[in-house]
Amino acid sequence: MSRRGWLLFLTMGAIWGVPYMMIKVAVEHITPASLVFLRCAIGAVLLVPIAAALGHLRAVLPRWRPLLVFAAVEVAGPWLLLSAAEQRLSSSLSGLLTAAVPLVGALLGWITGADRLGPRRLAGLVVGLAGVAALVGLDLGTGDLMALLQMTGVILGYALGPFVLSRYLSGVPGLGVVAAALAVTSVAYLPAAAAQLPRAWPPAGVVAAVTVLGVLCTAVAFLLFFALIDEVGPVRATVITYLNPAVAVALGVAFLGEPFTAGIVVGFVLVLVGSVLATRKNPARPSAEESRRPAPATVAEP
Fold first, then answer.
1. In sequence order, which residues have a C-beta less than 8 Å from that of residue 140 and are 6 or more positions away?
2. Which of 230, 204, 225, 248 is nearest to 297 (CA)?
3. Which pLDDT tens digit goes with each residue over 151-166?
4. C-alpha span between 174 and 176 (Å, rounded)
5. CA end-to-end span of the chain, whole Å?
6. Do 149 and 10 meet the contact criterion of CB atoms below 8 Å apart?
7. Could you give the number of structural domains in the chain?
8. For residue 93, how far is the Cα from the chain centroid?
9. How confident is the model at residue 289 (pLDDT cuts 50, 70, 90)?
10. What is the dihedral of CA 67, 37, 27, 205, to 10 degrees?
11. Contact predicate 131/269, CB 8 Å
12. Range of the domain at 277
């Protein structure tokens, strides 16, 4: 990997570990629906003009039906559920639970016949699910059942999104899909956000968190993400999925004073190992077309 590739790789791994902390700060004063609207609106304002100037939106519009489905399962649903869950859960635990997305993606691929599970990948699923069980059993109390259900919805949405993308939006520029999905989601959440926005101006820390979510963790992150794919290809780009949870834990512990528990240690190691095994395919050289195509499994981000 080139020096530029490593720089993009490490930058993306760090950036997509940040949203969990920002969401945790924001939902102390802003409702989940308002937060989703603000984040999507900021991202859309920045990305839609770029996608339009490049002609990427024209390619997306004819496929508006799968686009709406993708926006619902990848952005609108998961971001709302994640924000709601973080009203109860720590940002560290939320980040670690979303590390199970590759496991669910591998399982869905097997169920739908799009992929097969050999002994090694099956063992990875078992190990990864054991890690999730460790997180749930050691770090979640009985009062967190609703938050756990919400995080389950987040994981399922993030795992379903790539299937919609690969089956119904293949060949469409990724930037156009993301920009359009953000715009559609912001419009959908506008009524709820207008009714729920706080009457008083929130603290500066909350304003900063929302700004970072919309600008850095959404608009800038996706631009860098597509640059990473162009530099190293979609296969290597998927590895950033394994860095995000570690960054989320480090930030939550360092800046929010969240506990670093045995459940986090055991769960993270098992989920990470399981995800690597469950998503590792037999080595094969990707075709020239595949190396230029965005990898669906990496589009999901918190």
1. 89, 93, 147, 148
2. 225
3. 999 999 998 988 888 8
4. 5
5. 26
6. no
7. 1
8. 15
9. very low
10. 120
11. yes
12. 3-298
